[in-house]
Amino acid sequence: MQGRSISTVNVVSASLGYDFETIMLMTRAAQEAWEEHTLVSPSAKLEDAHAAMVRRIMQAVETGERDPTRLRALALSGIRGE
Fold first, then answer.
1. CB distance 69 to 57 below 8 Å
2. Which of these, 35, 23, 75, lies nearest to 52 by C-alpha position?
């Protein structure tokens, strides 16, 4: 599933015209959030959680967020109910 995070972010972000640096930032945030999520909630609905995390990262990037730690926290926020 980790590879899926990478490909999902890359495909969608490339189609939206993000530069390479931004794509790598989103990819890193998605990977780190996914790894942290699966350690905390290994039995959660994986497909739903994955899609929600990627969506949150992309929404944050669209509003200008570029801090990897903040992106990871935002990705996990809905999964944890924060």
1. no
2. 75
**Is residue 37 within 8 Å of residue 79, measured between CB atoms?**
yes
CA dihedral 7, 12, 18, 21 (to 10 degrees): -20
pLDDT in tens, 6-25: 456 655 665 577 888 888 88
Q: What are phi and psi of 16, to 5 degrees?
A: -95, 0
pLDDT tens, position by position, 65-78: 999 999 999 988 87
Distance separating alpha carbons of residues 76 and 11, to the nearest angstrom? 21
- Maximum C-alpha span of the chain: 35
